[in-house]
């Protein structure tokens, strides 16, 4: 029996974990109630502290330290179990920006107790924030053989494992594992997310949209992750060239007057509008509203997770608020120079120095029309974008920025290299052929430009037709 607990409290805590892995927002209320009733019930307090750091924002993350301090008043750290002390170490490090130290602490927790679902979930999300594909995969791979397939949390482990496989390039295996996870728990929005990623990475727009249609009753409402999955839906629609549908998803689900203004949602909104911006669709009104929300966020928080900062700068620059974007870039520059960039201390400092700062500078340069500066800053680090956060799909916005800058500045050799790389691994992506069309047009090769544009249109029409056919054939259609 855990100190300060009763069987009823343990049952409620386990129910809260079930809400956590389903991304249900009521988990916060239920954990708050448990902590209020018994401040010395360490599992609930630790889980509540994780909710702060899982936001990836400095203010809520610091609240995790407050929760730990309150727990210390009731249960001194030396009275915690070794596993609980491991969680405490991870939360403390994570709250202070020592992300890799938090990763290591969670590794040790899982080595001691492979069945600790909280450690696996929190560690997996941290691996995602750090874009650590190997850990995304292996954190789950190390423990899955220790679990029984009948264990209640097993299916959710499969969903996490599927995403790790996808980010590691094992697309077929990821799809199979993610599909099994969804068969076990249809409401596993992270497993859906994993399979959606596999279709994104293989340009299977029709299959991705079809899956999201079939699973709509399980992911569109009742969870705090639906905005991100709607972002994926919008990416598919963007590939089809259906801009009205893309903007409808944006307005209803990504950013509007009722949006919460949290970074993890706003970065998806920035990323989608920036893709349109790169394609010549400025979206002034939407960018203006989003930039205002980001401006409030920037004013309230210092640098903490540079992936968020880059998306704030993206929105400010896209809205024409270049001076404000440059001010945040200067904050990042000072932070990178003055911060502690040791291997396990202030991980974000290293991420900012190596990738985040040049990306931020390039975004401002692009908005200012200084395309050669974009090329100069991004081309040397394009192979390292994965080291500062997010998924392959999210970071593609930066790859597209480099490609578009290369086309606009007339660097035909680099642009051709980038386009050919994309087509070689994702031949059925309409965007890749549109990019080739723009490149050929800029190079004065009208014949190849026409061929590329026709290829893009043929792909779009075929993907849309297959999707609509499957929708019409679906039960209940």
Topology:
Layout: H1 7-21, H2 26-37, H3 42-53, H4 58-74, H5 82-95, H6 99-112, H7 117-129, H8 133-141, H9 154-167, H10 171-184, H11 189-201, H12 205-214, H13 216-219, H14 226-239, H15 243-254, H16 263-278, H17 284-300, H18 306-318, H19 322-338, H20 347-367, H21 371-378, H22 392-409, H23 412-425, H24 430-442, H25 446-473
Helix pairs in contact: 1-2, 2-3, 3-4, 3-5, 4-5, 5-6, 6-7, 7-8, 8-9, 9-10, 9-11, 10-11, 11-12, 11-14, 12-14, 12-25, 14-15, 14-16, 16-17, 16-18, 16-22, 17-18, 18-19, 18-20, 19-20, 20-21, 21-22, 22-23, 22-24, 23-24, 24-25
Q: Could you describe the 3D structure shown?
A:
- By secondary structure, this protein is an all-alpha fold.
- It is built from 25 helices and no strands.
- α2 packs antiparallel against α3, α6 packs antiparallel against α7 and α12 packs parallel to α25.
- It is globular, with a radius of gyration of 23 Å.
- The termini are far apart.
- The model has no long low-confidence stretch (mean pLDDT 95).
Strand content: under 5%
Please state the overall shape, judged from the principal axes of the Cα atoms: globular
Write down the secondary-structure element order: HHHHHHHHHHHHHHHHHHHHHHHHH
> Biggest β-sheet: count, sense, barrel?
none
Structural class: mainly alpha
Q: Termini, distance in Å? A: 51 Å
Low-confidence stretches: none
| Alpha plus pi helix count | 25
Q: What is the share of helical residues?
A: over 70%
| Overall pLDDT metric | 95
Q: Determine Rg (CA atoms, Å).
A: 23 Å
Number of strands: 0
């Amino acid at each position: 029996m855990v100190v300060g607990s009763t069987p009823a409290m343990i049952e409620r805590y386990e129910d809260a974990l079930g809400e956590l892995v389903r991304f249900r927002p009521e988990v916060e209320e239920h954990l708050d109630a448990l902590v209020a009733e018994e401040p010395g019930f360490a599992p609930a307090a630790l889980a509540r502290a994780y909710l702060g750091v899982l936001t990836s924002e400095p203010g809520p993350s610091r609240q995790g330290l407050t929760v730990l301090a309150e727990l210390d008043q009731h249960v001194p750290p030396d009275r915690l179990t070794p596993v609980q002390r491991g969680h405490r170490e991870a939360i403390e490090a994570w709250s202070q920006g020592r992300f890799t130290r938090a990763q290591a602490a969670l590794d040790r927790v899982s080595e001691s107790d492979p069945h600790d679902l909280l450690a696996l979930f929190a560690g997996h999300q941290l691996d995602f924030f750090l874009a650590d594909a190997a850990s995304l995969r292996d954190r789950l791979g190390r423990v899955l053989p220790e679990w029984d397939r009948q264990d209640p949390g097993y299916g959710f482990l499969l969903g996490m494992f599927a995403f790790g496989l996808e980010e590691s390039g094992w697309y077929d295996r990821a799809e199979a594992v993610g599909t099994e996870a969804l068969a076990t728990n249809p409401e596993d929005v992270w497993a859906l997310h994993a399979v959606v990623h596999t279709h994104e990475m293989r340009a299977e727009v029709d299959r991705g949209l079809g899956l999201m249609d079939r699973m709509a009753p399980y992911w569109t409402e009742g969870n705090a992750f639906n905005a991100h999955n709607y972002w994926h839906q919008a990416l598919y629609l963007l590939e089809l060239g259906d801009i009205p549908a893309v903007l409808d998803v944006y307005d209803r689900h990504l950013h509007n007057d009722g949006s919460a203004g949290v970074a993890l949602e706003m970065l998806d909104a920035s990323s989608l509008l920036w893709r349109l911006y790169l394609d010549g669709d400025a979206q002034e009104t939407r960018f203006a509203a989003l930039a205002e929300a980001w401006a409030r966020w920037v004013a309230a928080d210092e640098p903490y997770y540079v992936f968020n900062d880059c998306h704030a700068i993206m929105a400010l620059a896209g809205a024409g608020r270049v001076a404000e974007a440059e001010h945040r870039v200067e904050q990042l520059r000072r932070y990178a120079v003055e911060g502690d960039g040791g291997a396990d201390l202030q991980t974000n400092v290293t991420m900012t120095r190596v990738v985040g700062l040049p990306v931020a500078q390039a975004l401002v340069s692009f908005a200012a029309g200084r395309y050669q500066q974009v090329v100069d800053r991004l081309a040397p680090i394009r192979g390292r974008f994965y080291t500062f956060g997010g998924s392959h799909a999210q970071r593609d916005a930066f790859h597209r920025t480099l490609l578009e800058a290369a086309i606009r500045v007339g660097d035909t050799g680099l642009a051709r290299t980038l386009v050919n790389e994309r087509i070689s691994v994702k031949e059925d992506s309409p965007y890749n052929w549109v990019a080739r069309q723009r490149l050929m047009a800029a190079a004065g090769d009208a014949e190849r430009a026409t061929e590329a544009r026709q290829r893009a249109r043929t792909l779009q029409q075929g993907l849309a037709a297959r999707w609509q056919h499957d929708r019409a054939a679906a039960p209940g259609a």
